[in-house]
Design goal:
This is Glycosyltransferase 2-like domain-containing protein. This protein is an alpha/beta fold and about 425 residues long. It has 18 helices and eight strands. Strand 1, helix 5 and strand 2 form a beta-alpha-beta unit.
Length: about 425
Amino acid sequence: MSTIGEFISYIQALGPAKFLRVFWFFVIFEFFRYFLLDLVGLILHRVSLWVNRKKWKRASEQLKKENPLVSIIVPGKNEGKHIFKLVKSLSEQTYQNYELIIIDDGSDDNTPIICKSLLKNGLIDQFYRNDVRGGKASAANLGLRFTKGKFIIHLDADCSYDNDAVEKIILPFYYDKDIGGVGGNVMVRNYKESLVTTLQAVEYFNSVGIGRIVTSQFGIYRIISGAFGAFRADVMDKIQGWDIGPGLDGDITVKIRKSGYKIHFAPEAVCLTSVPNTFKKLAKQRYRWDKSLIRFRLRKHKDVLFPNQGFSLINFISFFENILYNLILNFKWYFYAIDLVINFPDLLVHIMLTNLFLYTTMGYIKLILFGWFRTRSNAPNYYFLPYIPLMVIYFGYFLRFVRTRAYFMELFFKASYNDPWNPLKTSVHAKEKGL
C-alpha cells in the first residue's frame, strides 16, 4: 500500500478516544485557545462595538470638541533616512493638534543635520540629542521631560501611519476614563520582500492583530507596541516613564496596569512597519523579545502573581495566560514530542502529517473566518493562502526553538543584560537596580 493510502487508512482508523490521546496538545491547547477562544472574543468585540456605539460616538464628539494637544515623541538612533517620511506622514493626519519631538540617541549618521533643518523650517517642534548613546528608554524619557500634551504618543521613526491613526489611537481615552494606555495596530509593510517577511505578515495578520483584539476585549491585553502606542500624560508622570532594557514595551504596559489603569487595543489605529527580511535577523529580534518574558514577567513584576496589597485578578490572569501559553506550554510541547516518539514510533510520519493537516486547516479557517472581523488589511486575504501550510513550520518549529533558547539563556544566565540592543552601561545599571 502506498504511503498516501496508509495515511488515509490511519485517519479512518482514528476514533475520538485515540484521536484525543495522540493529538491532545492541538485539541486542548492550540484549538481551544487560538481558535475557539479567539472566535468568542471577536464575536464579543463586535457585539460590544454595536451595544456601545452611542458611547463611542459621544467619545468622538468630546475629542473633537476638546481638541487636546498630543505630544508625539520619536526616539531612535541613525534614523535620518526615515525622519522626513515620518514628518510627511504625520502632516497628513486628520488630527493636527500635536507637537512632534525627535530625540537622537547618539546617532553617527546625518540625523542631527536633518532634524536641525526640519526644526529650523518649522516641520518639527523640538529636537534633542544624547551625544552618548543611552538606549531607547533613555531617549524616550528625555523627550517625555519636554512634552506639553495631555496625551503622549510613542512612535518608531521607520513606520508609516494611516491618515486617521492619531485620532483613532487617542479616541479610547474619551470612551473610558480608566484607560491609561492604548496600543496601535501594527501591520507588515514589506510583506512582499522575502519569504520571511511574508510569513511574518501572515503572523501579524492571522495571530498578532486578532490576538490583541481578543485579549483587549477580555481585559488582559499585555503589550503596547513601541512602534505605535499612546499614553495619558498624567499616568506617564505617575509611573515615571520607561525603565531600561529590551522588552520595555511590555514592561511599561505592566507598570500602567499595576498602577490601576486599563490597557486598550485600537485595531483601527493602523501603523505599517518593515519587519526583518531574513531568518537570521528575525531570530535575533525574537530572541530579544522572548527574553523579556522571563526578565519582566517572572522576575521584575513577579509580585503580580501573588496576593498582595495591590493584587488585581485581571492582572493575574493576564500574566498567567502569557506565562502558560508562551513559556510553560512551550516546554510542554517537548514532552509531548517525547511521548509520541516513545509510544508511537511506527506512526510518527502519519502523526506529523495529521498535525500538518490540522494546523493548516485551522490556519485557513482563521484566515477566512476571522477576516469578517478585521477592519483593515495591508494585503488581500488570497495573497496569504499559499503560505498557510508553511506557518506550521514557522510557528511550530522555527519560532519555538528561538523561544526555547531565549528562555533558557534568560532563566539561567540573564542574557538580556548583555544584549547589544541596550548600551552596556545602562544594562549594568539596570541589573544593579533589578530593572
